[in-house]
Structure formats: C-alpha cells, structure tokens
Amino acid sequence: MASQTELIESVQLKAAAANQGTQAAIKLPRIFCVEGQNISPAYLKCAPELEDRSLLYCAHGTGQLFIGDANAQFIGPGTAMIIGPREPWTLLLGRGEQSWLLATWSPDNPAIPNSDRIAKGACLVTSCSPVVRMLTDRVVARKDDLAEWPNFVLAWFNLLFHEWHVTRNVFSLTPTFMQGAEPLDDLIAAIRAEPQRQWNLTNAAELAGYSPFHLSRIFRQISKMGFPEFVDRCRAEIAVDLLINTSQPICSISDQCGFGTAQALRNACREYAGFLPSELRDRHGE
Predict the structure, then answer these.
(1) At what angle do helices 185-193 and 227-245 cross, to 10 degrees?
(2) How confident is the model at residue 50 (pLDDT cuts 50, 70, 90)?
(3) Sign of CA pseudo-dihedral 108, 110, 112, 116
(4) Distance CA 256, CA 179 (A)
(5) Which of 175, 190, 201, 220 has its CA 20 to 30 A from that of 43?
(6) Residue pLDDT, tens place only, 148-184
(7) Model pLDDT for residues 16-45, shown as the tens digit of each residue
C-alpha cells in the first residue's frame, strides 16, 4: 500500500487555539485539528507524551487506526477513540474530505474524568444522547477558538465520558435518524437485513406504506440524502465490515451486499469508505 499513499503533507495539519490563553489556568486539554482533502490515503503519525491520554474523533472522513502492533481499526464519521498512555499510534486517512479532532491531556488533570475507568474501544458519538451529539457538533464548529470557551470544552468532555460506551459497530457510513424517522424504521431495518435485494422507490414505498413520491420527499427530509444513496451507503457499510472481519472473496461480498460486480463494490468502497477493498484488507498498513 505504501506506493498508493502520500505523505501527511497532503493534509493541512493545524493546532487549534485551545492550547493557548486560558488553558494554563484551568488545564484545558490540548486540542488539535486535522483537515484537508486527500486524493489518496495519507499517514498521520503521533508519539504523544508518555503518560498523556488522547481522544481521537472523526467529524468527517474515514481512517484506519494502528495502535502498536495491533491490526488496524476502521473509523468513520462520528467515531471517537480513547488512546491510552505509552501507546504510539498511526492514522491512515482515507480519500476525500477529512476533519478530525485530537485532544490530549495529562492523567493528573483534575478537570478531566479519569479515562482509565472507561472501557477501551471506540464509541459511536452518533449513538449518544442528543445533548452529547449537539455539544460535539459545536466543538467541531468552534475548533479554531475553543480557548474562548473553556467551560464549554470541559462540559463536552465530561458528558461524553459519562455516556461513553463501547459498541461492536465502531463505524457508520449512514446518517443517524433523529425524531420523525419512526415511520421508516421497518424499511431501514429491511434494507440492512437484505442489502442484496434490488431496492428501488417502488418496492420501498410499498413496504413503508407511502407513495414513491412521498417516500422520496420524506426520506430526503429525514436523512438529508436521497433513497438510492442511502441504500448504497448501507451496502458499503456492510461490505466494509465483511472485508475487515472475514476472508470471503471480494466477488462473494459484492453479491452478498447487492453490488452485483466487484467493480461496483470497489467504486462504493472508494466513494463512501475512502479506501479500496484491497487497502481495507491490508490490516498492517504495509
């Protein structure tokens, strides 16, 4: 994969203002931002202070996280990961637009909850409460002037850690449906259960009990995307999981997820996951 990767200089790396000003007085965590547009995957390496804890959050984009000698972990939008002390790590950023936050803090910081008590693993912030999701979105939006909002930053840390829970599915390529999506619950569950089915607005509308026109309108209103894209994202999400966690042939995964051809699977992985199937299966970043 090394021949298909560029240096991290292809990504704009900048420190947010949170490590200045009032941080020294109340010991705010140091928060950094990684932003940019990747044509091909790019490595970001980090060697934190020996005892520092780190929180890595993907606001937009995808990546594969390598901690020590362990296999990579795929991370998508809305995923947060706590990295313990003495754990050097490397993040392979996927193709497309990228926006990540990295927060580091010393274990003796009294303003930050003790992360040692939190189960290791990733947390889908999109599965947390609306308050935590809202605070996270605002932290991302204010990433350049967080030093001016110290109490806001600490509230985000404390509430996020309070709700922290490890999920089996540590990534999602589909949107989180908020209030108002209940009439589509059965349809969404059916798409996830049968991705190989030839889904279209006609048979989906019949299952949901709407006309195709009304389903198209309400689906876009709730999910902020069209029905065909949502189906493709569901298929890509399932395919990524199979590519990472099984040794099934790519052609078999393509049929199982409803893509039909290996090229269609390749295109979907590249567009929605930021990696080619072969890159997702290279679990050691070699």
Answers:
(1) 40
(2) low
(3) positive
(4) 31
(5) 175
(6) 888 888 899 889 988 887 666 678 898 876 555 677 8
(7) 334 444 444 557 888 889 899 999 999 988
Token pair for 13: 């790396």
Q: What is the mean pLDDT of residues 74-84?
A: 90
Surface-to-core class of residue 5, CB atoms within 10 Å of its CB (0-12 exposed, 13-18 middle, 19+ buried): middle
Q: What pLDDT is recorded for position 178? A: 58
Which amino acid, 36? G
Structure tokens at 220: 């876009």
Q: Which residues of 122-136 are buried (b: 16+ CB within 10 A; e: fewer)?
A: bbbbbebeeebbebb
Q: Report helix, strand or coil for 142.
A: coil
The residue among 168, 174, 78 whose CA lies nearest residue 128 is 78
**Hunting for tokens 């930053």 — which residue is that?**
153
Residue 4 pLDDT > 50, yes or no? Answer: no
Please report which confidence band the pLDDT of residue 87 belongs to, taking 50, 70 and 90 as the band edges: confident
User: Does residue 59 contact residue 101 with C-beta atoms inside 8 Å?
Assistant: yes
Tokens 């002037």 correspond to what residue?
145
Question: What does the alpha-carbon distance between residue 120 and residue 116 come to, in Å, rounded to a whole number?
Answer: 8
The SS3 call for residue 92 is strand
| Alpha helices (runs of H) in the chain, residue ranges in sequence order | 23-26, 130-141, 150-163, 185-193, 201-208, 212-223, 227-245, 250-256, 262-268, 277-281
Tokens 């990696």: give the residue. Answer: 275
30, two tokens: 């140091």
Outline where DSSP puts E strands in 49-181: 53-60, 63-67, 73-75, 79-83, 89-93, 96-105, 122-124
